[in-house]
Specification:
The protein is mainly beta and 850 residues long. The chain has five helices and 45 strands. The longest helix has 27 residues, at 2-28.
Length: 850
């Protein structure tokens, strides 16, 4: 109890310090509001397409003032709905002195030269369109800023409304999304503490999203299993982008193949998805790659503990607006081992890469070719403790048994996108994609007890799983007028599976084949949606998605609805509903299951679609242009869930992770996720930010035993506090900057299946008969509430031709190792060991931009 009180006291003290820091920062900047300098009495002039407004005479600067480093901001502005370029848009740098900006040309392009390095806000204004402010554009001396921007046409005429520019922060880039969605910028991915340069980990900073806290980068959205997340790249569905993703699509390795150097602003959805998204229950991460610089060559080289990588970009041909962007990364530990500097025994070996090629044309539209791939592996010998528990088919750590685990995994996604304007109001997107991934596991076991032959070994587990997918999609967009927009399309997917898995738990038992199939399945999805802006303050989006699973001829019709209502200039109300469905992982359809007579069959081939109804309601209050609060409610009803065909079984596929239960399944399970979420966010402005969010929720399911249980992901609460401060104009030449970021996480633990105990609470397992777990108490409770504090710092200095940056990210600075799960371990005095949080882990990285 004393330890518990001390721990609680420590947490509360930390929270008080963080909150005190935030309050001080807020009060010190309370009256600091952003203004756009638009003095119409000044005479405008253009220099190299840059609009410069001369200032009033000022005192001459001192001769010893450091030379200001500058860079170019350029890009294109298009209509949000029609994707046509907008001519004559005014693009201004907020608070620039003298005021500086540009106007877009016939192709919608703009160019602003000699912008001082640092952070700037960009304001866009155009008659008949809503004004927009793009905040926190990071300008470095070595790299041009190239932007792709959109403006939304007003629903009313300028004489009827006064338009006030709002910061475009967190608003999804998909204009057909109104609820439970937000955009995530590369600037946020680099700034927040804890993500290890990993775009997937950044998601856990937001409301209702958690990770498993065991070192993996799984994404748990509102209590849903991470296996039901949909990953997308450049608008099309891809494989899980994490190294070592298993056959359910759960990332067990904790390393993503994605790299922040390539990302553009991307969208993440948590429920009630727009009609274009199907075959998904949990969340959608729609990741975008930025386009490479189409005018000059640029690059980034980085080296850190997690990897060494290089990013290159530039024009394919001088005078042609095409471009390339390519990145390659290799494990730093493996690289050092190859050079003979370290011994990497047991370390993870990985490499990955990505690319994007842009090929615009005058008459045939724009083509883009993209790809993402990765290869990884590890070899562990004489495993023990948590390493052994993480291997397939493992139940306990026995002194009499030693194991070697070898794993190799790969992923590759590539595709071609084509976009063409058919008229001033219509455009067409077409995509063709190939994706493949696989993982091969081999676990060798050896008995080392006196009762067995010393060193005798056998194949404990053998698995070779691969999947290839071919996808085609066509989406038609029609902007009827400034109030109405239609979107319709179809998506076809063809899956080819080649699976083999077998398990043998001892030398006496026969090898059991768990899965052995070479099968093909396919889906056809159609959708149509309509966006109606009734007036400036009220917008509706409705649609229907049809899911056709062609292997079993299973179909669903899924209505979608979303509404956004601006109650007053600072208060918004949103609500949404969506019916959704998805296929289960392929191994569940073709699992080999022995019946009561011992005959092996495949009883799950006719497994149907999983389904869910999503409801969401939220209200958002804006206190300032950079400060808002949001309160949300959600409810998800899940049904037709695959559960074991037994009225005494707890098992449902929504709880499976690395170990799989190959049993007879029926679509008769039910589930429900519901909760309340609060977010208070101060966007990065005036050199600091903070983000506070709290989620209180429940995640339940029911099998044929007709008993509501917690899912293993029902941690019941999540709380995050993030804050950061940037210190500018450091160094003798005012060309350096220091940024410090902090994250505090608190949350409930993962629900577990406990070890067997008697009525007195004493351990009561039966290793001889492989009986360790008390399934009757499955997911009733967790072991510990969890907390974690991450700290990150970056130091940047700009030079005329290069920018240098050091990152230090300290993961879990208090080395908290809360207990996540338990397992039987004969080497421990009480025969119990625990899977814990990773604990303290520093990551140092250096980058040079050139």
């Amino acid at each position: 109890m004393k330890k518990l009180l001390n721990k609680c006291h420590t947490r509360s003290t930390i929270v008080r310090i963080v909150v005190f820091f935030l309050i001080c920062q807020y009060l010190s900047h309370e009256n600091a509001l952003a203004h756009v300098l638009t003095d119409t009495n000044l005479t405008n002039r253009k220099v190299n397409d840059t609009l410069i407004i001369p200032p009033k005479p000022t005192q001459e600067p001192k001769e010893d003032k450091p030379k200001i480093l500058r860079q170019t901001i350029r890009g294109q502005v298009i209509d949000e709905d029609s994707k046509l370029p907008l001519i004559g848009v005014t693009v201004m740098i907020e608070d620039s002195s003298p005021p500086i900006g540009a106007t877009t040309n016939n192709n919608g392009n703009f160019r602003i030269e000699k912008v001082p390095v640092g952070r700037v806000n960009l304001q866009l204004s155009y008659i008949g369109y809503e004004q927009k402010v793009i905040p926190n554009i990071v300008v470095n001396s070595a790299k041009e800023v190239v932007l792709e921007l959109t403006l939304h046409e007003n629903a009313t005429t300028m004489s009827e409304v006064t338009v006030v520019a709002q910061m475009d922060k967190g608003t999804p880039i998909n204009d057909m999304a109104l609820v439970s969605a937000r955009s995530i910028s590369p600037e946020e991915s680099n700034r927040f503490a804890g993500p290890f340069n990993d775009p997937t980990r950044i998601l856990s900073n937001y409301t209702g999203i958690a990770t498993t806290q065991d070192g993996s980068n799984d994404i748990i959205v509102r209590g849903n299993s991470p296996k039901y997340i949909q990953w997308r790249l450049e608008g099309v569905q891809i494989t899980n982008p994490n190294h070592f993703a298993n056959q359910s699509g759960i990332g067990t390795g904790g390393i993503s193949a994605l790299n922040n150097n390539l990302l553009a602003t991307s969208d993440f959805y948590t429920s009630a998805f727009p009609a274009e998204y199907g075959d998904v229950l949990s969340g959608v991460y729609d990741i975008k790659l930025r386009s490479g610089n189409n005018e000059r060559f640029e690059g980034v080289f980085g080296v850190g503990l997690m990897g060494t990588d290089i990013t290159l970009e530039g024009p394919l041909k001088k005078g042609y607006t095409s471009s390339y962007l390519v990145n390659y990364r290799y494990s730093t530990i493996t690289l050092m081992s190859n050079l003979g500097l370290v011994d990497r025994s047991g370390a993870t070996n990985f490499q990955d890469g990505a690319f994007k090629i842009m090929l615009p044309s005058d008459k045939l539209g724009t083509f883009s070719i993209f790809g993402l791939g990765g290869y990884s592996g590890f070899d562990l010998e004489n495993m023990s403790g948590m390493e052994a528990v993480g291997s397939p088919g493992h139940s306990a750590q026995l002194n009499s048994l030693s194991k070697d685990h070898s794993t190799r995994s790969y992923l590759f996604n590539t595709g071609i996108n084509h976009s063409i304007n058919l008229s001033e109001k219509t455009y067409l997107n077409t995509s063709v994609v190939y994706a493949t991934d696989g993982i091969k596991d081999s676990v060798q076991a050896r008995f080392i007890s006196p009762t067995q032959a010393q060193g005798s070994s056998y194949q404990y587990f053998d698995g070779d799983v691969s999947k290839s997918t071919y996808r085609g999609a066509v989406t038609f967009h029609y902007k009827i007028n400034h109030q109405h927009k239609l979107q319709a399309g179809f998506k076809y997917s063809y899956f080819s599976y080649d699976y083999f898995q077998q398990l043998r738990k001892d030398t006496v038992s026969a090898q059991r084949v768990l899965a052995d199939f070479d099968e093909q399945m396919s889906t056809l999805r159609n959708f149509i949606s309509w966006k109606f802006q009734a007036f400036e303050k009220l917008t509706f989006i409705t649609g229907i998605h049809q899911m056709n699973e062609l292997y079993n001829q299973d179909r669903t019709l899924e209505p979608r609805f979303a509404m956004s209502w601006e109650l007053n200039p600072t208060l918004d109300l949103t609500m949404g509903y969506g019916k959704h469905s998805t296929m289960e992982s392929a191994h569940n359809y073709f699992a080999k299951v022995p019946n009561d007579q011992g005959i092996v069959t495949e009883p799950n081939r006719k497994l149907g679609l999983l389904k869910a109804d999503h409801y969401t309601l939220a209200i958002e209050k804006r206190f300032r242009s950079d400060l808002k609060a949001k309160l949300g409610l959600y409810y998800q009803w899940l049904y037709d869930l695959p559960v074991e065909n037994s009225d005494t079984s707890y098992y449902a596929t929504l709880n499976e992770r690395i170990d799989y239960e190959y049993v007879h399944l029926v679509n008769e399970g039910k589930g429900k996720n519901y909760g309340v979420e609060l977010t208070i966010e101060k966007f990065f402005n005036d050199s600091y930010y903070f983000l506070i969010n709290i989620s209180l929720f429940q995640s339940k399911y029911k099998t044929l035993e007709n008993r509501w249980r917690n899912t293993q992901y029902n941690s019941e609460y999540i709380a995050n506090i993030l804050a950061g401060k940037e210190f500018l104009n450091l160094g003798r030449k005012d060309n350096q900057a220091l940024t410090i970021n902090l994250k505090v996480f608190m949350g409930g633990g993962r629900k577990i299946i406990p070890l067997r105990r008697d009525d007195q609470g004493q351990l009561n397992v039966d290793p001889a008969n492989d009986r360790y777990w008390d399934y009757d108490k499955a997911y009733e409770s967790s072991l510990d509430d969890l907390y974690q504090i991450d700290l990150s710092m970056s130091y940047k200095w700009n030079k005329p031709k290069t920018t240098h940056e050091f990152y230090l990210n300290i993961y879990d600075i208090t080395d908290a190792k809360g207990r996540i799960a338990e397992y039987y371990d004969e080497s421990e005095p009480d025969n119990i060991s625990y899977v814990t949080q990773v604990g303290l882990f520093p990551n140092l990285m250096y980058k040079v931009y050139f």
